[in-house]
């Protein structure tokens, strides 16, 4: 039986469980949300729901904070990494598109 890779991104974990898994207080977790370092979903009742990827992100944030890195710096680093991923994705899409066009029109690379 194969495990669905999306299990890591499904927002199903409550803040209490996240607190237990990470060792962070619920207040710290909310603070990281306020600082736009983590983005939980909300239920209709307003409860936060996190994913396993969020838990990993929170652990990474906590480790950086222990090293003395400020939340602003962590946020800037996250934004740079996101932009880098977007640029890499764009390059891959362009290469795939070129390959499809070349295949469609019988263009051979030399």
Layout: helices, strands, pairs:
Layout: E1 13-14, H1 15-22, H2 26-34, E2 41-42, E3 48-50, H3 52-66, H4 71-104
Antiparallel strand pairs: 1-3, 2-3
Protein name: Transcriptional regulator
Domain HTH merR-type: 12-81
GO molecular function: DNA binding; DNA-binding transcription factor activity
Please tell me about this protein's structure.
There is one protein chain. The chain is mainly α. It has two domains: 1-69, Multidrug-efflux Transporter Regulator, Chain: A, Domain 2; 71-110. Helices cover 60% and strands 6% of the residues. The chain is built from four helices and three strands. It has a three-stranded antiparallel sheet. A hairpin with a 5-residue loop joins strand 2 (41-42) and strand 3 (48-50). The chain is elongated. The protein starts with 12 loop residues before the first strand and ends in a 6-residue tail after the last helix. The model has no long low-confidence stretch (mean pLDDT 92).
Spatial extent as radius of gyration: 20 Å
- What structural class results from the helix and strand content? mainly alpha
Amount of beta strand: 5-15%
Q: Report how far apart the termini are.
A: 44 Å
Describe this protein with a few key phrases:
three-stranded antiparallel sheet; 3 strands; about 110 residues; Multidrug-efflux Transporter Regulator, Chain: A, Domain 2; mainly alpha; about 5% strand; 2 domains
């Amino acid at each position: 039986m194969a495990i669905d890779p999306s299990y890591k991104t499904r927002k199903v974990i409550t803040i209490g469980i996240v607190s237990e898994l990470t060792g962070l207080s619920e207040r710290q977790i909310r603070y990281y949300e306020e600082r736009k370092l983590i983005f939980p979903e909300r239920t209709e009742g307003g409860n936060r729901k996190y994913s396993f990827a969020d838990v990993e992100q929170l652990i990474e944030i906590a480790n950086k904070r222990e090293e003395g890195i400020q939340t602003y710096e962590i946020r800037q680093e996250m934004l740079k990494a996101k932009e880098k991923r977007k640029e890499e994705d764009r390059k891959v899409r362009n290469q795939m598109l070129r390959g499809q066009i070349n295949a469609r029109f019988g263009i051979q690379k030399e």
